[in-house]
Amino acid sequence: MTSGNPVTFLYTNSYDGWADLLVDRLGGDRVFRFNLDLWREYEISIDPDGFRFANRADRAVAATQVAKFLWRRPRTKQQLFPEKDFPREEIYEDGELAYAMRELWNRMYYAGKAVLIDPCSDQLAGKLTQARIAQRYFSVPAWKMVSGVKGSPGTPPAAVKSLTSQRVEARTTLYTSRIAEDELASESPWFIQEYIEADRDVTVVCIRGALFSFEFQRALLPPGVIDWRRAVEMEPALAAKWEPRTLPNSLERGIGAFMQDMGLHYGRLDFLLAGDRYWFLEVNPNGEWGWLDPHGKAGILDTLIEELSPGTPCHPLPRPRIIRAASSM
């Protein structure tokens, strides 16, 4: 049954805690959630004049009802469960549907209804471009990408991290690690950063200019671990050790200018704090925040609800996409 009331179209998957919170707070009548991994549970029709989706509860939404469209975290079953083998026909079908949904997002983007998260942001300006832009506003660790290059003995330990965050094996992720460059296998590609001896991790959730900042004391990391994500995997209780932090005005201004140069309305920025010096690491244009504010007390959820409600003004993503990247090679 199609109600005719305006809704926010939430494009994600069935394993998305952020989406669960949004639906719960906004109300099911104001959100239509489409889970890519469960696409067979929907009736889908897309044509030149519009589109219509209906779920198994007989709730339907038409194009004319969509006030805002959020690309949250759509994942096919193959992406959610890479350790499993799926029939080739199923992989093909999932790919066809995902392609059509990408085109639907394009339609919403050009209609001025796509909000907060641009799925193309990493292709337009990924970690290497981010680091170059960030140099205008922050301290940035020296970095390089190498392959086929053997590290020189005696070089200071460096931080090695993944650009893609893809799993190395079925359930193995390459977390940021401290290692001497000459210990790295030269036949593999490596993203290497200067190692910063920091006191704290600082992460900042930016929602269209509103900043929510938190810190984690690195003294809590287990011996030999430098990535807090690995620490939380080992000791889940450490996730609750993130605490709110007040940022200097100069850093807040820098974040605002950086996000504008990146053309982003949303992102979670990661820094290291050594003494009173903030070192920029990266911005995740679709970053998670739930563990930082699990009870909604810091204001993140309220701000997101205000941005995503179908009854509030729509602030579409920048069009055209303009990245103010450094001009030098």
Commentary on this structure:
- This protein is α+β, with helices and mostly antiparallel strands and 329 residues long.
- The radius of gyration is 21 Å and the shape is globular.
- 28% of the residues are buried.
- It is 24% helix and 26% strand.
- It contains eight helices and 17 strands.
- The longest helix has 23 residues, at 88-110.
- It has three domains: 7-110, no CATH class; 121-139 and 198-308, 2-Layer Sandwich (D-amino Acid Aminotransferase, Chain A, domain 1); 143-194, no CATH class.
Instruction: State mean pLDDT (0 to 100 scale).
Output: 90
CATH superfamily of the largest domain: ATP-grasp fold, B domain
How many β-strand stretches? Answer: 17
Structural class: alpha+beta
Biggest sheet, spatial arrangement of strands:
15-14-13-16-17
N-to-C terminal Cα separation, in Å?
Answer: 56 Å
Summarize the structure.
The chain has 329 residues and is an alpha+beta fold.
What features would you highlight for this structure?
single chain, 329 residues, alpha+beta, D-amino Acid Aminotransferase, Chain A, domain 1, five-stranded antiparallel beta sheet, four-stranded antiparallel beta sheet, 8 helices, globular
